[in-house]
Write a structure and sequence with these properties.
Layout lengths: L11 H5 L41 E6 L6 E7 L5 E8 L8 H15 L2 E6 L5 H9 L1 H4 L3 E8 L7 H26 L4 H18 L7 H9 L7 E4 L15 E7 L4 H4 L18 H13 L21 H5 L1 H6 L1 H15 L14 H9 L15 H15 L3 E6 L5 E4 L5 H6 L4 E4 L2 E4 H6 L1 E5 L24 E4 L3 H6 L8 H10 L4 E3 L21 E6 L7 E6 L3
Parallel strand pairs: 3-4, 4-5, 5-6, 9-12, 12-13, 13-14
Antiparallel strand pairs: 1-2, 1-16, 2-3, 7-8, 8-9, 10-11, 15-16
Bound molecules: zinc ion.
The site of zinc ion (ZN) has 6 residues, from helix 3.
Length: 555
Amino acid sequence: MAKRSAKRNLPSARKARGQASVSVSAPAPALPSGPRPAPAASTARAVVAAPSGGGAKLTVRFYCQGIGDCHLLKFTKDDGGDFWMLIDCGIHSSITGGPAKMGQIVDDIATLTPRLDVIVLTHEHWDHNSAFFTARDKFKQFTVGEIWLGWTENPSDPQARQLDKFKAGAVNALQQANKRLQGLREPGPHLAALQDGLQAVMGFNFGVQGEKVRDARDAAVNLTSPNNRRYLEPTTPPFSIPGLGKTLRIYVLGPPRDAAMLGITERPAEMYGIAAAGGWPIATVLGNALATEAGALQPGQDMTAPFNPEDGLDLKSARSRRNRRSDEQAKATAQFLHDYYDGPARLEPAAKPAGKKRRAARDSKRTDQKWRRIDQDWLGVSSDLAIQLDDRTNNSSLVLAFEFLESKRVVLFVGDAQVGNWLSWQNVKWTVDDKTVTGPDLLARTVFYKVGHHGSQNATLKQHGLELMKNTDLAAFIPTNAKDALKVKWGAMPFVPILDDLNTRANKRVVRADDAWLALPAGNPQFSVPSGAIKALSHDPSGNGLWVQMDIAVG
Ligand SMILES: [Zn+2]
């Protein structure tokens, strides 16, 4: 992947205005106002001697709703005032009482601040944005400054629009496939497993009542005016925020632009021309099959169908009683179908053998023929599509590294970035104060890590992830709930080897949203405080375990 330097991506118009370089000098430039896909460091040349950043303060209230992210960051501004940033606010739809819990969380936020200077939406999944929809009236009480999203959410970005087309087609096809699967009377083990898996993915994309994740994202975006929406990407030069120029610099590590890294493996040569469900092979095949079933596409119009429509029999008409009456051939076919495909249904009186042979014949003909039936198995492709959709959306996570200028410490929020997003950080570089800053360099200075994707095995890399986080003050928070994860059949989440390695590297300074001590007013974590990056720690005194709050040692 090409080197991503700030210099390389400077719009030429800016150079014409006398900006020789966008190499960033301390204090970090504020993110300029006005919408643009990749905000440039417009004040990069306004070099001022770096004042002391020793006053840097960061307090984070991590909400503990379980499978879902909602983190409220309070930065102390250079003038001593507060700067409030909310990163995500959602809960997976499978969790009982989720919307009510999120309502409590939004109420709690309102007790702390009437203003959210920045809302960060990491990616378009229900467990990260549901509250903007389900608690939309509560959110209206806040004054909201800006919203930050990944470039993937920018409606005027052609690559984002292409990705969006895939998402829309895939969500639509999966929703229909899911409906069909739910309606099956005897799904069999394969399709039953598919039902479960699909339900879990649907929970990232829909609310309990079928509300769409897009509506939740848009509800958040609409809390701001169009001028205050920022679409960020790794080519965005490192920036600061107004009032924090002396202490803070923000790097955007992801989402990557590289399609392979995002998980898009589009190969036009292998794709069909007709796209009922988008431009991607699986979404197209499934979308077309569903459209054919619904009568919206004629069998001959589906260019992705594996067989010619003239080949084979239509099961419905072959089973039809009317056909059976009309001709001998049809009757024989219907009987064959009955005995070797649909059985063990009631035998036709004419086919019932008489006398001694009856028992033997009944045994063979009444054998359950379920194992032969494949007429719903085409829905199986939806599992691949669901995985693709899920991975790509997670990989579109906006990843922010907050660097504190004096201490050089980094606090890392990765959304649900999966493998491709993490790998792309290996190649990200910026020029700051004539020095090169790389992704691995930021990881090496990370003192606090918001664990990605609720601690799953594919969202925290080993060699190119945790093993690079070498700071001995490391601490981490995992927005997870092991019981809920089992309930929705995700298996062990958080993934034990990641948890073990985190505990080792962070010297046990790991807090999980489902930690039992959080629900005890006098509970204590598994480490002493202060320790490492955790200067102070408190938690919800009500016994509801709603939040845990940490002062991070960033100064
Ligand atoms: Zn998530």
